[in-house]
Amino acid sequence: MTLYGRYSLCCFTGTSLALAISGAMTMDSHASSPTIVPVADQGAASISATDPAEDTAKLYTVKDGRVDPKTYEGWIRFSGFCQRCHGTGGIGSAVAPSLVDAVKRLSSTEFAGIVLAGRNGTWGVMPTWGGNPNIVPYIDNIYAYLKARADGALGPGRPEKLDAPH
Predict the structure, then answer these.
(1) Fold classification of 50-161 (topology level)
(2) pTM higher than 0.85, yes or no?
(3) Please, which of 1, 60, 110, 111 could form a disulfide with 144 given CB 3.0 to 4.6 Å?
(4) pLDDT one-digit tens code per residue, 48-105
(5) pLDDT per position as a tens digit, 28-45
(6) pLDDT band for position 8 (50/70/90)?
(7) What's the angle, vertex CA 21, arms to CA 89 and CA 130, rounded to 5?
(8) CA 90 – CA 50 distance, rounded (Å)
(9) DSSP state of 45
(10) How many angstroms separate the CA atoms of 134 and 67, rounded?
């Protein structure tokens, strides 16, 4: 078991990935969304995170185009690893869908499941990022950056940090 932040990568076998997030999330290639189940040996309770609106409370802070450090880190990780397929600012490309549109309907838990497990879809194949230490501990940051973009709070391009001088 490899621990990265709040996510514990338990196993990856073909079409499913088990994940501990105060519970375990299984992603089945036949399911439309991840399923959260209790993990008895970790004493965790069941979680239901299917409403993207529940994730919006204080995920990010944007003031005059400047972002909090977590959201800035999300932009760094997104631009380094995701942008080549999902386009500048997450608006999509010829090879991958818009993540700005996707996070409007995905909770942070669902987003993490797709990023960690990968996916075969109508656009092609989303690779598995579950073993990448440059992605796994920063999934919440990437989601926060994309959510700020999806909510219209942040434009495309490199944001400035809130703590940086004007």
Answers:
(1) Cytochrome Bc1 Complex; Chain D, domain 2 (1.10.760)
(2) no
(3) 60
(4) 344 555 545 689 999 988 999 999 999 999 999 999 999 999 999 999 999 999 999 9
(5) 444 444 443 333 333 322
(6) very low
(7) 55
(8) 22
(9) P
(10) 20
Helix, coil or strand: residue 119: strand
Place of tokens 């970790």: 42
Q: What does the domain layout of the chain look like in residue ranges?
A: 50-161
SS3 (DSSP) at 10: strand
Q: How far apart are the two ends of the chain, measured CA to CA in Å?
A: 44
DSSP 51-110: -GGGG-TTS--EETTEE-HHHHHHHHHIIIIIHHHH-GGG---SSS--HHHHTTT--HHH
